Amino acid sequence: MDLHLASCRSRILLAITILCSKNVLARKASGMAASRYTFDLVHLQPCATPGNSMKYLNYSQAMSSDGVVSLNGMGDIGRTAQRLTDIAIVAYKCRDGVSANTCEYFTRFTNNGDGCRLISSSIVPWASLLGRSQPPIKCPLQTGWYVITNGTIDVDAYARMYGVSTNNDVWKITISIKDEKHSPFVCVDAAVRIMKYASRG
């Protein structure tokens, strides 16, 4: 990942964290319920992309009293990769449900080059998810089962940054990763609902 880009994102996330912290403190002082963005995972499954090494994926989710969603899951990777190169995350905003008639393109994130550094970065929203994997998800990627226990995804800062609405929209997200040969390695389709959770904690 470009170091300048990573530095900019780090500063943005720091600014958002400070603003959110001030907002929470102000709400607590006034006796109002603090709120945060959280999510409900509608589905998570391997893509039908030819060459996808993710052969099986299963998960469960649970929400804590403060609105944090914990994910438990396991996936089977069918072949090795020495390096990860191209990573693309594409998001579509879908009205009420996921279908060709209700979804429209929203945004795209791409990383061409050092995908190994990106998946191990501490500033990405999925850092606390991949960090809970056994065996660790790092390069080189090995075949076999990967198990995640009580992993979390920080959607709050990014939802605020992008101005995500909390109506009945479903967000369709496709994550595709290529190996050192720039061949498809892992592809995952997800659908989530973003919501606000209020807590006096």
TrEMBL record:
Q: Which UniProt keywords apply?
A: Signal
Q: Does the keyword Signal apply?
A: yes
Q: Point out the signal peptide segment.
A: 1-26
User: Which InterPro entries does this UniProt record tie to the protein?
Assistant: GM2-AP_sf
Question: What's the protein name?
Answer: Uncharacterized protein LOC113210423
Q: Which organism is it from?
A: Frankliniella occidentalis
